[in-house]
Amino acid sequence: MDHVKTYNAMEIKHKNGNIIVEGPISQDEMAKLEFHEHLTAFRIPNQQHKALVKIAGLPEGRIIIARNGNEIVGYATYIYPDPLERWSEGNMENLIELGAIEVIPKFRGGGVGKAILKVSMMDDAMEDYIILTTEYYWHWDLKGTQLNVWEYRKVMEKMMNAGGLEYFATDDPEISSHPANCLMARIGNRVSQDSVQQFDRLRFMNRYIY
């Protein structure tokens, strides 16, 4: 399928400075921007920056960023699921994963995460995709936010809802390993019923195993 990407943006007046939320960002632009040192949820910052530059260059790869001036202070990535995950087993061209979303502590609590998701979905091409995200409590900043797993899960769900992602049940063992973990997804309005059924089969791969 053609991976059409249409740039969109919005401005947020945050108490700690104005933020531009924009994307999908090109690979060249991604490489030029500075990357905040507190973006540490997944890798050390310079390694994560390199990973995002690489993702931005992939045909299906999408990076939506929040920047303060010339510095990235938040981002979300959209990419095909990891080959080691069950979600890749159907080889679905129209199934992409919201693989990471991160905002530095200084700019949390001002709707930046929600804005990143809203800008992501402003692109009409997203109606051709099933977008999924897997939420695992061990990736959450419980210490920094002083929230327990259920409070954090509630915040995370509300943020994902801003992008149209909703809770979906699954028998995936890693998600099922803790009740706070969850699968969320958004099914675009041009996704075929065949693709929805294929996604359902991926969600419940163990249903007929006895």
Automatic annotation (TrEMBL):
Which keywords fit this entry according to its UniProt record? Acyltransferase, Transferase
Domain N-acetyltransferase: residue ranges: 19-189
EC number from the UniProt entry: 2.3.1.-
Q: Name one Pfam family in it.
A: Acetyltransf_1
Q: Name one GO molecular function term.
A: acyltransferase activity
Q: Does the keyword Secreted apply?
A: no
CDD domains, sorted: NAT_SF
EC supergroup of this enzyme: transferase
Protein name, UniProt field = GNAT family N-acetyltransferase
